[in-house]
Write the structure tokens for this entry.
Amino acid sequence: FRRGDYESAITEYRTLSEERPLARYLAFLGAALGANGDSEASIEASTRAVEADPRYGLAYYNRALVHRRANRNSRAVKDLQRAIDADLPRRFKNSARKILEETK
């Protein structure tokens, strides 16, 4: 994923999430799909991640980024707020706060 090989990441995380539908696998699948330009599939995977673990902040964060790119700012704001309130690493919380201020 970090090398920009989104197709391979999609394949890998799709397989992992089918074997074990953990929030982190679904969130990473959503991120890879979003980076590859498949916004609707990204939102779907991120939503499944939220359903698997409503406290997994990275799923909200990823979904917010896709909503923001699609100019769905009210949805992006809601997801950014949820991401900040959820379990999210500090660097993502800081990024979410910055994006939230820019989006409001």
Notes: The radius of gyration is 13 Å. Residues 96 and 102 are 10 Å apart (CA to CA).
